[in-house]
């Protein structure tokens, strides 16, 4: 809903480690005032009564694959960003392994042009590194692009950066934040050959974490961190999946860290015990591993060795996912259900709402230096989410918004529901209904 002035009354406002009851006045794109009580000064003010609900900053998802251009049978920027805002994600950072890949300035700007017309949520893109595009990397404007993505394992096309000299050159020469996918390809190939020799192409899915093993993850992560320390590069390690990797990170204040990490929803929710029921629907790279690994990831998240919770949203069609092991792609859709899943963990006593907001809203904004987002502050963009913690819903085919039409959470009942999502001061989603207009903006970075 496009309105000049919105007043949210009597919300439980969650921000910077505190929850307090109050009102928020939105004028244009920005939060104008936050106070215990604000009166509507004219009949033009649209008042939203939020008694009993929680008002959060919009979630910033620092890792998604929205599949456009080139893979749009799986998803598009429009379909997946629409699903995202229904789940309280107001900004996303999308990855470069589309078709064509985002490894030139020209291809990067083409994606920004698509998003400017199609996206429901605020957007930025990672620029992709290869073994031979350092000249292009050095042309990237650091105030306009989220960062640089390097695949040190599990790449598509020519995006595996496996030349040590090239890697060190990139780390030494870019001022961009470097985000990495860490799995050692040599280890994985050797493991895969072992299982193919025994089972052929139809390897039981339960062996996925043995093939894409904890050793492969740790070997790659530790090498990337060693290189970052050597060169002074700013490094962010995506989707930790093992307890051992958490030992590589510190819990010093985020603002002082040069090496940071992320964990994804699926690694906090599922374990290898779920493969029997879910099969290749929960085939991800890195693989979902043991309960012990999950418990250690939770421990590191709560003691601040892990800085960010993201989705790694990566849709595939059901037909693709139902192939035999070696042909079933890795990845799954998550943006619609990520925040409800984390709020479910709040209901289970695993995490506080304040900590959810820290890891999903505040920290991505701090880590990527995103301008005026991720917090509920006067003068900041009004990217906000109203949540009803006691309004259960069950994930079913008919309420899944992903283009691929399925979810690994199908059949799960979540206690919490997103009722309103505001994008740049506009009411974009309200009680399961979307506004026809799109209010998204390109993210900018205070660097």
UniProtKB/TrEMBL annotation:
Keyword Metal-binding attached: yes
Domain annotation Amidohydrolase-related: ranges: 54-427
Keywords assigned: Hydrolase, Metal-binding
GO MF annotation list: dihydroorotase activity
Cofactor field: Zn(2+)
One family name in Pfam for this protein: Amidohydro_1
Protein EC: 3.5.2.3
Domain of life per record: Bacteria
NCBIfam families: PRK09236.1, pyrC_multi
Family to which the UniProt record says this protein belongs: Belongs to the metallo-dependent hydrolases superfamily. DHOase family. Class I DHOase subfamily.
Record-linked PANTHER family: ALLANTOINASE
Purpose of the protein: Catalyzes the reversible cyclization of carbamoyl aspartate to dihydroorotate.
Protein name, as recorded: Dihydroorotase
Species of origin: Gaetbulibacter aquiaggeris
